[in-house]
């Protein structure tokens, strides 16, 4: 049974209260900014570039990623926060990521219970497997959550449009998630 958009947003906001989300907002998917420049950063600075199914070039061209993302009507943009002794300690910072990923996966499960089609993105490339099978077939394509930037999305622009403030200090890690969704058809 289909639910109205108002009921859908109400149900989403109700279950979001059950998770340690700092801030969130909704956008129409068409209002999200995509740029090939974001991919340049992936290629030049990220060690996962060309080594993961959830990263470029495996995810496809930015134009194709945009087409897929905006095929969903809305986007939920949200943050979780983690405390660390020193944000420059990458080992300590990255050790806080699994809690954020649990939240992303839990929200996906909530959307599935609503029979809601979605496409989830997170702050880093997929880490389900200790070593990605790339370029061999992905072992868990149904659970893979690509990185927001892998799609060419300028996450700071999306957050700003949602009124999400960026917290930055030496002891706070801000993790982002974007989940595209609509209520017309089931997908994953």
UniProtKB/TrEMBL annotation:
Q: What is the lineage of its organism?
A: Bacteria, Bacillati, Bacillota, Clostridia, Lachnospirales
What is the protein named?
A: DUF2284 domain-containing protein
**Cross-referenced InterPro entries:** DUF2284_metal-binding (IPR019271)
At the top level, the lineage of the source is Bacteria
Pfam families listed in its UniProt record: DUF2284
